[in-house]
Amino acid sequence: MHQPAITGTGVFTPSQIITNDELVAAFNAHADLYNAENAEKIAAGLLEPKPYSSSEFIHAASGIEQRYVLDKTGVLDPEVMHPWLRERDDDEPGQMAEMALEACTQALEMAGKTAGDVDAVLCAASNHERAYPAVAIEIQDLLGIQGFAFDMNVACSSATFGIQAAADMIRSGSIRSALVVNPEICSAHLEWRDRDCHFIFGDVCTAVLIERAEDAKGLHFLIKSTRCATQFSNNIRNNNGFLRRTRKDHMEDRRDMQFMQNGRKVFKEVLPLVSKHIADHMADEGVAATDLKRLWLHQANKTMNDYIGKKVLGRDPADGEQPNILQDYANTSSAGSIIAFAKYSKDLQPGDTGLICSFGAGYSVGSVILERA
Ligand code: CO8
After folding, report:
1. Is the beta carbon of 195 within 6 A of some atom in ligand 1?
2. In whole angstroms, what is the distance from residue 364 CA to residue 117 CA?
3. How confident is the model at residue 274 (pLDDT cuts 50, 70, 90)?
4. What is the pLDDT of residue 80?
5. Is 330 in the pocket of ligand 1 (CB under 6 A)?
6. pLDDT value at residue 173
């Protein structure tokens, strides 16, 4: 068995930012339009008026202050309320592949490696922009990588499940290295017209290069152990899919074709699931809370992370022990914990242990125990 290690990380961050205040102003203008258009039905008691959103609620409920998006013009237009992304010719790089190229290039540069050193590409994300050919194969082609590539989707846990898949292949010897890349265009499947969730997500792309530890040239983290778990739940769901046009009315503008969640239930059900998952994983690997130097958690909600951090460490995490990036990026699905890892890991000392944990739709939970080499 070979020892896998994360040798490089990359984060592509879109250039456009939407602050909570901008988002709420657009949402409230949209609510005014909606209520005016439906005034008669609302007056007749046939329809509920759309209530306003508020920046104060968003910050208090989630900890989110802003989000990066590929396009803010459409999202902030009260008559549109979704991003506008340019249609591309089939022979030019797709939107996800373009984001992935920058993140992968950063990861390769950090590791001091080139495309020739990579054997596989796993594009692991919450949604893929087309059914086929796989986005991963397009990324492989654009980077000039030999070997193979495939797409994966485990919603918010796509990245950690991808890391486990790549690490297992490296352990067994079927490959020497892999790029696991997570282009998350959450803005395109978020329902920006629903105040319960319109503030939750942002766009980003992360990448990690995983190699045999013996091939590492610089700073790297040994992947000591990975653990994945799933448990079916409809509390986070999106009904869009290739059967859409086979069903009556499904081509209409339907709420269930975008992200839907029962946030309260998710909050209550996922917290014990994740706390137990991490505790069991650490116990089985002989890692005590006092051994953990850093927790890189999924970035959905600050209160959730505070709770999990306290549960895992048995005390309130000290400054920097459990870094959050959600205040700047919002929830970026599978990429969140990897952004936290990429930005807040280089100061760890050789021998230090840290843990990445993702959780979300499915439900799905993935944890990765790392040791700074
Ligand atoms: N402004 C003002 N008031 C609001 C707003 C708003 N924007 N939204 C809701 N309210 C109101 C509600 O109507 C409610 O009013 P009332 O009490 O009168 O009914 C009140 O505020 C409280 O609402 P909630 O109970 O919903 O508020 P919470 O405190 O529960 O906070 C959260 C809502 C932030 C959503 C919280 O429940 C949460 O974070 N839950 C966990 C969510 C989570 O982790 N989800 C994971 C999803 S990510 C994932 O799995 C990836 C999926 C794939 C990616 C999809 C990309 C698009």
Report:
1. yes
2. 31
3. very high
4. 98
5. no
6. 97
